[in-house]
Amino acid sequence: xxxxxxxxxxxxxxxxxxxxxxxxxxxxxxxxxxxxxxxxxxxxxxxxxxxxxxxxxxxxxxxxxxxxxxxxxxxxxxxxxxxxxxxxxxxxxxxxxxxxxxxxxxxxxxxxxxxxxxxxxxxxxxxxxxxxxxxxxxxxxxxxxxxxxxxxxxxxxxxxxxxxxxxxxxx
Length: 171
Fold this sequence. Notes:
By secondary structure, the chain is mostly helical.
């Protein structure tokens, strides 16, 4: 429970810093079935943490083509931000795959204009740097964690050890 609370608070701080990519990654990770199925963990979390998690889920939601995220990103332009690249890459892919109606032999400038809008938004975010001091202990922890990634099967096994599935009673 403490780890889930910590990750929700971390995601909230990342969001406040404008790091939408990492914030969304944590929320998506916490929403994965091996974690989200742990009913005791989620019910024992303080209301404040649950509310933060819900708000962060809404910010990361694909509802209305990521409207909440896009609005928050637009409000933060001019400050350091890390956009959620998954959203922008999806947009660029869809623009590339979309069938544009043009006369034979003509260039569809509207397509390139929309692609440029996406790329320029990302470039605007790169113009402002995060000013973070190097923290040796954090750096070492992050480096160490990269060596200990768990596969989905291992996550399920740990999840089931922590909270086994309920077995239905026989009639």
